[in-house]
């Protein structure tokens, strides 16, 4: 499998994106912005469609659209402070409707669009790999340098602000990095499943991890293994990579949560048994 | 030294005014309680003073520096902070230490004295035994206490605490009020607290700001200065 050039690129791109997307997912979940990745993927699709219509590189257009969408969501979020999820809904509707109209205008691009929608390992070109690497470098620098302010902001933006954190700028930067990572993930998992790569590893890691750093590292590990397994299964079974990766990550989540519940149940059983069993001292007394 | 002030400030949400012509001043070394019925805009008053909300009219000012000319540090405990996501993957010690991240420490490890300050804050609030627990596993009162420990770890110039004793038992509340009084008396810090239990801490306070309903609508500030002999000019503390 790995002697194919496209599979090497797919594993390389999948690995980079899995690491970035999973770390991003932890922050998105804790900031209650789980749907943001989904929304930005739809906006990015509108950019891809616009790029195709205007004869501009669709990948770059998708990147630019995702970044603009991320800035827009931040602006709308500030306008609707009490209903921050409204910003996601408004921009998602805008992105999807523009994408649909532009796609209907450009019928020659149907095949390529389906690879954007559902993901395709063949779709990963060398240029896209370079974009992904660039997004990964920006993301790594962002999360490494700002992990502490982001931790404070995940709890409460107002107290973070009074602690001297420039919340508005970091929030804007966070949205832009999210846009970049979402746009970079699209060739692998596709528009419709991009949030699976971001949300599912994070959803499992925050349930099993005991500290913030371990949650991020666990999410990255789960994302990496899930993507590798999904790509291998996709190659062997000839199934769409996006759907296969999402399904593998979903299985990881379900089995991980079940195992955790089982361990908790066994632990509580042991504890209650130990309580019920009389100690040597109690036996001697009786 | 004047740390924060509101001069003739009016504010509301949407088109509905909730606070009208409020004027207060917060000086270094004061212990101030803000009180009033539910919906009297007590939290709003604090947010206006901290610059988190912009007044419709009037002026709000927050000093940029403390008495030593360094950046003013604020330990703000909002009303809902203890209702954080119960699944948040963080331990109590990590959470309390995050108070030190602020504007001065985004990279690198915390210094030993900073770690000691966080440990001291946990001991002072009775949360030392909880330090290895996940924060989501704590009760409401315990969550409230770790939020206070976090702001204590910062050693801020100004504490702004919005109903910080919610969910705490009576003993913990009294210990907490004494701890705050000690912060003022020993270190010359300033404490502003929103509370409904005025009788419990009245003897420790310097001033009470009561929000009262105006006849023509909205709420106004009435300040009562108490003569408990606590308030001393900051200069004398040094």
From TrEMBL, chain B:
Keyword set, alphabetical order: ATP-binding, Nucleotide-binding, Transport
Protein name: ATP-binding cassette domain-containing protein
GO MF annotations, alphabetized: ATP binding; ATP hydrolysis activity
Any Pfam family: ABC_tran
InterPro entries given in the database record: AAA+_ATPase, ABC_transporter-like_ATP-bd, ABC_transporter-like_CS, Metal_Ion_Import_ABC, P-loop_NTPase
Species this protein is from: Paenibacillus sacheonensis
Keyword Transport: yes
Family annotation (PROSITE patterns): ABC_TRANSPORTER_1 (PS00211), ABC_TRANSPORTER_2 (PS50893)
Domain (ABC transporter): residue spans on this chain: 4-238
């Amino acid at each position: 499998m790995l002697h194919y050039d496209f599979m090497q690129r797919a594993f390389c791109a999948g690995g980079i994106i899995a690491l970035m997307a999973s770390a991003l997912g932890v922050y998105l979940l804790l900031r209650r912005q789980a749907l943001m990745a989904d929304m930005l993927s739809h906006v990015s699709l509108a950019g891809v469609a616009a790029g195709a219509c205007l004869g501009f590189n669709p990948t770059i257009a998708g990147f630019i659209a995702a970044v603009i969408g991320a800035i827009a969501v931040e602006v709308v979020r500030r306008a609707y402070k009490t209903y921050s999820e409204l910003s996601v809904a408004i921009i998602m509707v805008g992105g999807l409707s523009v994408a649909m109209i532009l796609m209907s205008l450009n019928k020659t691009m149907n095949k390529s669009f389906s690879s954007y929608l559902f993901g395709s390992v063949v779709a990963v070109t060398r240029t896209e790999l370079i974009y992904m690497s660039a997004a990964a470098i920006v993301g790594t620098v962002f999360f490494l340098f700002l992990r502490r302010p982001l931790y404070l902001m995940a709890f409460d933006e107002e107290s973070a602000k009074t602690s001297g954190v420039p919340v508005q700028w970091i929030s804007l930067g966070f949205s832009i990095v999210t846009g970049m990572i979402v746009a970079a993930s699209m060739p692998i998992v596709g528009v419709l499943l991009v949030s699976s790569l971001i949300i599912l590893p994070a959803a499992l890691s925050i349930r099993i991890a005991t500290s913030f750093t371990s949650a991020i590292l666990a999410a990255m590990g789960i994302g990496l293994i899930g993507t590798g397994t999904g790509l291998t299964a996709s190659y062997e079974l000839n199934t769409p990579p996006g759907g296969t990766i999402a399904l593998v990550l979903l299985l990881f989540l379900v089995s991980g949560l079940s195992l955790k519940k089982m361990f908790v149940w066994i632990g509580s059983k042991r504890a209650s048994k130990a309580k019920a069993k009389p100690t040597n001292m109690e036996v001697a007394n009786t | 030294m004047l740390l924060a002030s509101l001069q003739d400030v009016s504010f509301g949400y949407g088109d509905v005014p909730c606070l009208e012509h409020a004027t207060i001043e917060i000086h270094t070394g004061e212990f101030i309680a803000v009180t009033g019925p539910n919906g009297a805009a007590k939290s709003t008053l604090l947010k206006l003073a901290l610059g988190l909300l912009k007044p419709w009219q009037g002026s709000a000012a927050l000093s940029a520096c403390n008495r030593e000319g360094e950046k003013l540090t604020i330990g703000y405990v909002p009303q809902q902070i203890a209702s954080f996501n119960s699944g948040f993957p963080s331990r109590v010690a990590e959470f309390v230490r995050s108070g030190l991240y602020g504007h001065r420490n985004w990279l690198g490890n915390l210094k030993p004295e900073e770690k000691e300050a966080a440990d001291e804050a946990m001991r002072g609030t009775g949360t030392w035994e909880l330090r290895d627990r996940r924060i989501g596993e704590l009760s409401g009162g315990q969550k409230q206490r770790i939020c206070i420990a976090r702001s204590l770890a910062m050693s801020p110039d100004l504490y702004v605490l919005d109903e910080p004793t919610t969910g705490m038992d009576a003993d913990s509340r009294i210990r907490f009020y004494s701890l705050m009084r000690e912060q003022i008396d020993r270190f010359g810090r300033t404490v502003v607290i929103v509370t409904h239990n005025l009788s419990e801490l009245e003897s420790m306070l310097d001033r009470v700001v009561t929000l009262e309903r105006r006849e023509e609508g909205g709420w106004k500030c009435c300040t009562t200065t108490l003569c408990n002999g606590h308030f001393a000019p900051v200069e004398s503390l040094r």
